[in-house]
Amino acid sequence: PPRGFSQRPADVPAAPAAASMLRGIDGEWLLNRSFKVKAGKKGLCHAGAGGVGLIAGQWLRHIGAESIGTVGSDEKIAQAKAAGYTHVINYNSSDFTEEVRALTDGKGVAVAYDSIGQDTYPHTLSCLEKFGLFVSFGQSSGMIKNITMTDLAKNGSLYAQRPTLFNYIDTRENLNEVSSNMFRMITEGHVKVDINQRYALKDVPKAFKAL
User: pTM (2 decimals)?
Assistant: First the structure.
């Protein structure tokens, strides 16, 4: 393939490959590189019923981690649980920081993945254990505007990262490694990617509008 493209394995059909490529790669580097999640570790993932969230839930279940997913409505709770999350919280109907603390016996989680941004910050920091890692990889509710270094100190000498996809796939070798790991999870049946919509090429504007 040309530079910048990944080789699709022969046993992965084109449609699941296309549907999983971006969000699946995000899941791979978030769980394997941004923070190396291991069996028994506790992790929090906001938007558990979103594109990355559904893949992350399955991946975390395969690893054997204790995972907490948050969702924005009761309708999404079953979807996130089916994806593999150990616990699911509706952050619009309860205080997710209190729920996470209760689920972890007051200790908090080792890592928190936050793609929401302003609406969940700084509350997510209160969910972390001492020396935990806050990974802000999206901003669906807007860019975080009020972050300060003292927030990390008062919440337990925390670490924070604002990663970007292209730093993890900056070379052809890195792209192949990340994508190969992601495709392996699919071919081995650990991650299933649902294709909920299909569009003809002439309807690409409708697809973008739906996104």
Answer: 0.92
